[in-house]
Write a structure and sequence with these properties.
The complex is a heterodimer of chains A (about 150) and B (about 90). Chain A is of the alpha+beta class and about 150 residues long. In chain A, helix 1 packs parallel to helix 3. Chain B is built from two helices and five strands. A four-stranded antiparallel sheet of chain B has the order 1-2-4-5, covered by helices on one side. The chains are: A alpha+beta (about 150), B alpha+beta (about 90). Strand 4 of chain A pairs antiparallel with strand 3 of chain B, so a sheet runs across the interface.
Chain lengths: ~150, ~90
């Protein structure tokens, strides 16, 4: 029973993402408000700690066809709006990452099948001294965990 | 039935062996692994890059979907049977 509930949730999320991606459905009010904080590519916003979930960026990505990322510090969540293929982080956010004051919680990909991390994704983790993070597909809703240490079992 | 973490361990190690453990150790500082559940299987990936990452004097970090691994292996691990299939 538990497995069937899990599968239904995954299937329903994919249906929702598909509908939003194809313009046949809209975001919830909560996610519309999130997007209002970061309406354009390369915008970012500080939000209350723990206010962002990985699923949020899948839905935002489905609506905009852009990558999003969630960073998290001790007191704030950061929502970053990327472009179609990148999240390019510079300036104040880069400085906070370099100082290890932010962690990369998750970012979104458009992978339709299996989600594969990129070398840049890997280098990002290495640079900020973080072992692993999550990637979510905004097409399927599937989440993977990727790591910069292949021998860390 | 395997747990997801058990399947991950089997799959990542199978990918490392497929690429070659020695090669993976040589480029361990330029490698990445990933795993995720897709229905009744856990898909695992290991990728190696032979290009160095020069982190000195950079002023930006990028997350991107553009993947150009020099060596990689992917497999699926069946949670019920433990069967490993390379993709």
């Amino acid at each position: 029973m538990k497995d069937s509930i899990t599968l239904s949730s995954s299937a329903s999320m994919q249906v929702s993402l598909d509908a939003i991606f194809n313009g046949n459905a809209g975001l919830t009010e909560h996610r519309k408000r999130l997007l209002e904080h970061v309406p354009n590519s390369n915008d970012w916003a500080a939000l209350p700690l723990g206010s962002l979930e990985t699923k949020d960026i899948a839905y935002l990505s489905a609506a905009t066809h852009h990558e999003f990322a969630i960073l998290r510090g001790k007191t704030k969540d950061i929502l970053f709006h990327g472009t179609e293929r990148h999240c390019f982080i510079t300036g104040e956010l880069f400085d906070l990452l370099k100082a290890k004051k932010l962690r990369l919680i998750a970012h979104s990909h458009s992978d339709r099948g299996r989600i594969i991390p990129s070398q840049d994704d890997r280098d990002f983790l290495t640079y900020i001294g973080q072992k692993s993070s999550t990637i979510i597909s905004y097409i399927t809703g599937v989440e993977i965990e990727f790591s910069a240490d292949i021998f860390n079992e | 039935m395997l747990s997801i973490l058990q399947a991950k361990k089997l799959g990542i190690n199978a990918c490392i062996d497929k690429i070659g453990r020695e090669l993976c150790e040589k480029y361990s500082d330029r490698s990445a692994s990933s795993y995720g559940q897709y229905g009744d299987v856990v898909n695992c990936f290991v990728g190696l890059s032979t290009t160095s990452f020069h982190s000195e004097n950079i002023d930006n970090l990028v997350l991107t979907e553009e993947k150009q691994w020099d060596y990689f292996a992917e497999c699926s691990v069946d949670l019920y049977s433990g069967e490993i299939i390379f993709l």
